[in-house]
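Form 12-C: Joint structure prediction
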Amino acid sequence: MTEEDKELFASGHRMCAGCGEGTAMRAILNVAGPNTIATVATGCLEVTTTAYPQTAWDIPLVHAAFENAASVASGIESALKQMGEKGETNIISFAGDGGTFDIGFQALSGMFERKHNVTHICLDNEAYMNTGIQRCSSTPYGASTTTSPSGDVSIGEDRPKKPLARISAAHDIPYAATATIAYIDDLKKKVKKALEADGPALVHVFAPCPTGWRHGSDDTIELSKLVVETGIFVLWEAEDGEICDINITKKPKERKPVEEYLKKQRRFAHLTDEHIEKIQKEVDEKCEQYGF
Amino acid sequence: MGEQKGLTIQGNMATALGAKLCKPDVIPAYPITPSTLFPEKISEYIADGELDAEMIRVESEHSAMSACIGASLTGARTCTASASQGVALMHEMLFIAAGMRLPIVMAVGNRALSAPINIWADHQDTMASRDSGWMQFYAEKNQEGLDLMILAFRIAEDERILLPAMVGIDGFVLTHTVEGVQVPAQEDVDEFLPSYEPPHGKLDPEEPMTFGSLGTPEYYQELKHDQTQAIENAPEVIDEIFDEFEEEFGREYNRVTPYKCEDADIILLTMGSMSGTARAAVDEMREEGKKVGLAKMTVFRPFPSDLIKEILGDADGVAVVDRNISPGFGGAVFAETAGTFINESKSPLLKNFIVGLGGREIFKKNFKEMYEKTKEAVETGEVEKPVEWINMDEDVMRG
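Section 2 - Result
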């Protein structure tokens, strides 16, 4: 094994079987390489990889709190700059959807606006999984969570998912992209571009959660593919804050019905045909906006 | 040794100048009254090429302390300034900075906490963070604000301690008040404070380490014990560094400074800018033949229990003056002073006086009243009200 092949995200962590984050992390750190410093927000990724006295990280890492991975990274970047580092060290702030969409959003927006040379990577499993599957602003319409349960008079989550990557791109940052682990080369290419960008960048990684979504642990990759093939999660990238003319990186030739994606997950098991039809209609409208 | 330069400046400028002399690498800061002049001055120093540093104009105090943590862990000398709601907003991160043993220094313009919103002096902001693991220093005047910044860096970075430190200067009373200060020469500060190199590792790709791990119940208590040990070791180191500073710069600092305490029956225990007024009150009372003294506390964390016992132990009564309130008990200094004497065979009678909240003036007559009330309690042997609020306006009170 050469130095380049060395896994920087070690096996033996405590993630659930089939967790999308583990696969994503391995690929991301392979691209970033050893000359990288990372911050991580409180959440699944932190809890499953840093239990004292062990660590799954073979790069320098700091976990401080839940909402501030991006501001801790701002401090690291400024310190390296002041102490004469020439910008060769990658700085990545990792956070889940809670630590990015919700509680960490202010710190993220500040980091973007101040133009720190930091790549923020959001591992999005669409709810507060570490605390027990509570609803987040990343939770999609119709998903049943422990704080947006479906019931006789409830569809579950009744609001659409917050468009994080579009809001990030609107900060006029050099690079913003979405990715899933089903298209690993696409993910790696985007991480590389983000790290090479001269300034802040965002990669929003869709990361299925078998525990929270209640799907088979062998369906993780399949769901990461279906979510793209149905048009529910569109893979794109935007450079230099261009949010009108974005580059769609995977355009399904023929879109599959959303039902194929939804029916594989028990978080959507309560949805009626009418609900599914409504979701299909909304996805159709969105895809039309994206031009497919 | 270089010559010290005399300047007449506001308290915020004194702490900013003290920080500048320490050559910080990274200063993340968010403006808040009454400490705004600190980040303004630092910005000016950088803009004029007098200070080579990175200033991060963060979007909140929470991010200010978060960025301090990131910068300090990378090996940068790091400081910031804040006050009141700002210190409250960064509360979460204060514990993390101390838990990671990072020698971050923060100048605080001590100010009341809302509600009601109030921008004026009291010690509630820093007292509310007394359990965070930070060392706490309080200045009586601007000179102390400047010197304590230099001392705070030196003490915080000492390998035997490695903990963050805050330097409190009372809002407006010091932050905005112009006083004469002596400014040490840069070369002397350089000698007193060598450049900072983290002794136990930093964020370095050459030697990867994980910081801020998950501490399970098998480890957490021991790790907390070790952190606590660091601040418990601090008094000896602080005394040593205070002595060295005096030798170098000619100004004396003590964790607690006694004034006319040797033969005193009653001693006033104070912190911050009120100490000057208290000293004047003691002088006037002494002229009237009253055996009264003053103990000024400069270091509140680690709590100077040894000196408190030594200086106050032989008095009949002590008036503990708190510019803060822990609702449901009394003042924080009182609580800790009482705790210090709990197992002593001999303890002075302790009275607690709450004064000066939200910028209420503290007059000499207030200290005289405290003396009389403490004296009366000593003579009658009765403490009817252990905690009393002083200088209250009956017309404003609603019940």
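Section 3 - Comments
The CA atoms of residues 77 and 216 of chain B lie 31 Å apart. The two ends of chain B are 60 Å apart (CA to CA).
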